[in-house]
Every structure is written in C-alpha cells, then in structure tokens.
Specification:
The chain is of the alpha/beta class. Helix content is about 35%, strand content about 20%. It has 2 domains: about 120 residues, Urease, subunit C, domain 1; about 290 residues, TIM Barrel (Alpha-Beta Barrel), CATH 3.20.20. The structure holds N-(iminomethyl)-L-glutamic acid and fe (iii) ion. The site of N-(iminomethyl)-L-glutamic acid (NIG) has 13 residues, from helix 4.
Length: about 425
C-alpha cells in the first residue's frame, strides 16, 4: 500500500543536512515544513515537500495510493528509544515501595534486591516466557510512538542466561514480527553474579561470552555499568576494548550515582554513546565537546529513583549532541512511554520542544548507528512515521500525559494501535 499524507499543518522532518548528530544550536533544527506532504511507497519515504513540488512529483505517479488528510495534524519521524532493558521477568514493586518509605536504590541493591533480584527471576524463566513478557511491553512502546528500540541483556550474568537473553532479543526482532526494530546490546557487565569473583566474571565475559556473541552475531553493541561497587573505569576499559576487537560497538552506563572515570573511557574507546550522566561533572562535559559521542539522558530514571537530573543545558551549550531514552527496566524506570520522558526533559532538563524532538529521533538514530536509515522523514529513508492529532508540534510537550497519536507507520505499514 502507498500513502499520501497531505496538507500536514506541521511536518517535522528532523532532516539531517550536516551528516553529524545535532548539537549546540543545531539541536533545535527540526526541519519544519508548514502545510507539507509526505508520500510513502514500498516501505520508504518517497517524497517530502510543499504543495507545489508535490504537484510535480504526482504528475509521473501512476500508482494508486490512499490519501490521508493532514490538516490540523502534526507528522514526525517514529520515535527511537536508544536505551532499554526490555527483557526481564518478575516485578520489583516491593522495592519501589521500600524506596517510597526512604530506602535508596543503592541500599536496596546492597541488601540483595535490585539487579540481582531480577537476575534470579530471569534465570528461572524459559525463552518462551521471556518472549511473552516482552511482547506485551512492545505493544506499549508502539502505542506511544516508539518504532525502533535498543534492548540490553544483563539480567543473566552467566554464560547460559546472558546468551538466552540475547537470543530472546534477536527472536523478538526477527522478521519484524512485532512491527518494531530491536537492536541488541550485550550488557554482561551489568553486575557481578554472586557465585564467582569479579575477576572470574570479567574473564568469562572477555574469553567466552564476547567471542561467542560476536561469532553468532547476537549483539551489535556492548555496554558496561561503570559505577562504584559494579565495574570501575579500568575494568570497564578492559571489557569494552575486548568487545571492540570483536566488532561490538561500545556504550556505557556512566555517572549515574558516582563519577568514576567513565567519560575518559568513553573518549578513549570512541564509544557511540554515554548514557545516564546524572552526576556528570563540568570538566567531563568539556572533554566530551567535539567528540560526537552521544550523551543519552535518562530523566525517567531520575524521576523514578528521585535523584538529580542530568545537566542537559550545559551539554547542549558545550556542543555535545543529546539523545533521550526511557531506560525502561524493572528497577529504575518502569515505563515504556517515551512521551513522558519528553515531558520530564522539558520541565526538569529545561530542553526546548525542538531539542527534545531531535533527541528522540535523529540523535537517537546516531546513538544506534542507524542514522542513514531512520530518525528523519527524508527521501529514501524507512517510512517510520507518526501522525498526531494536533496542529503544532509544540503540543507534544505542552499537552502532557495524554497520548494523541492517531497513526503509527512502521516500514510503510499502517499499524493498528
Ligand atoms: O540503567 N543502572 C544500572 N542499570 C539500570 C537499572 C537496572 C535495574 O535496576 O534493574 C539502569 O538504571
Ligand atoms: Fe539502563
């Protein structure tokens, strides 16, 4: 099926003229076309532009297509959630209640809760159960406009269960069965399992897991939780540089609770993104300047854990490209809704609507090395497109906590949501 979305009051293209992530003042450039048009054919964007150029384009078009009226609507690229822990089992609502009563995330982790409680549940479950659980969550992601997401392992923490998680992620992505693209990340270094020492576990990651994952193409990225009581900067560097030799692209969880040198490792290894950054220091922001490493901010985790928010303004002022993601996981951010994250980015990070929109589209595409395929509405790109029932893109941020999506197109297919 082909579609013409016509007379769109606000067509937000997020087009990328520079060939690099949007940063500094450029983070606000959303490529707005007023009263624009989009033609979707064969799963791809075939045309974007004003009514005059549309006429010319349609002259040579001899195929049938459905016309969708875009009057009083806003059209945007499908959202990209570049940091999630999609696959897990069990609930941590008890911990959530402990936190409300005053315990901290770190205290709960020390007392045997946190990541290790999810590890117990994931190890118990079969692949089929994990797939069923994730399936439900994928429907929520799509409903709120996410058309591509990244998903991490990290709740297996041994050979069998880390591989099981990655196989689940790959199966969920296969043949686009759920109408959403899922990019796998190996996060074996999420925590240290109880049964072996940290050094033994790092050896297992470097000598067994990474080679196996690379050989079987189970992950595109790798990630480490660079944090006090988890993995220090040296250990992070050893793990990520080993993975890089095997072709895994480095990402980091860094500066969430403590600043322990993650930024230096990210720069040294040319990581594609550095994520979290709640306690990022000014001198580290200066170091990130001009590196094009994407700072992926996760204000949902700050909200859910009630800890400080990320220094988005200082990052943007220093020319660091910013992306936003949910960090969806059972412990520190239990929501699939990227729109809520955008509201937090506005109120708590003081980002503008334009900066936020680029942060969940083209910059998030860069954070997943998918910038040539998705993240903007441009000729030749995959037709991942959202139609909203409001005339101004600013309403996406202003009219908060109500989902005003009317249509989601994934690879040119109009989805039932
Ligand atoms: O990104 N900080 C480390 N990892 C996750 C939380 C995982 C969990 O609590 O289960 C995060 O916040
Ligand atoms: Fe995370």
């Amino acid at each position: 099926m082909s579609y013409l979305i016509k007379d769109i009051t606000n067509l937000v293209t997020c087009r990328n003229l520079t060939g690099i992530p949007k940063k500094g003042k450029g983070q606000s450039d959303i490529g707005l076309i007023k009263n624009g048009n989009v033609f979707i054919d064969n799963g791809k964007i075939e045309f974007t532009g004003n009514s005059l150029s549309l006429k010319k384009f349609l002259k040579n078009k001899n195929i049938s297509y459905e016309i969708i009226d875009g009057k009083n609507k806003t059209v945007m690229p499908g959202f990209i959630d570049s940091h999630t822990h999609l696959v897990f089992a069990g609930s941590r609502s008890d911990e959530y209640e402990m936190r409300i009563k005053g315990s901290s995330y770190e205290e709960i982790a020390k007392a045997g809760g946190g990541i290790s409680s999810t590890v117990k549940n994931v190890r118990k479950e079969s692949k089929d159960v994990l797939i069923k659980l994730a399936e439900k969550r994928l429907k929520n992601f799509i409903k709120y406009g996410t058309t591509t997401l990244e998903a991490k392992s990290g709740y297996g923490l041994d050979f069998k269960n880390e591989i099981k998680m990655l196989e689940v992620i790959n199966e969920l992505n296969e043949k686009n069965k759920y109408n959403i693209d899922i990019l796998p990340t190996f996060l074996g270094a999420h925590s240290v399992p109880k049964e072996i020492t940290k050094n033994e576990y790092i050896d297992l990651i470097c000598y067994q897991l990474i080679p196996y994952i690379a050989k079987n193409k189970l992950a595109k990225f790798q990630d480490v939780f660079c944090e006090k009581n988890y993995f220090d900067a040296k250990e992070t560097e050893r793990i990520l540089s080993t993975g890089a030799k095997f072709g895994l692209i480095p990402k980091l969880h860094s500066d969430q609770f403590n600043s322990i040198g993650g930024v230096d490792v990210a720069i040294k290894l040319n990581a594609i993104s550095i994520d979290h950054l709640e306690v990022l220091k000014s001198n580290d922001i200066k170091k990130l300047k001009n590196t094009n490493i994407i700072a992926t901010l996760l204000p949902g985790a700050s909200y859910f854990l009630d800890v400080p928010y990320q220094p988005a303004r200082e990052l943007i002022n220093n020319n660091v490209p910013v992306a936003l993601a949910t960090d969806f996981n059972p412990g520190s951010c239990m929501t699939e809704n990227l729109q809520i994250i955008m509201s937090l980015a506005s109120l708590k990070l003081k980002m503008s609507a334009e900066e936020i929109i680029n942060a969940v589209t083209i910059n998030a595409a860069y954070a997943l090395f998918m910038q040539n395929k998705i993240g903007s509405i441009e000729k030749g790109k995959q037709a991942d497109v959202l139609i909203f029932d409001f005339p101004s893109y600013k309403d996406l941020i202003y009219h908060f906590a109500v989902n005003q999506i009317e249509n989601v197109f994934k690879k040119g297919k109009k989805l039932k949501i």
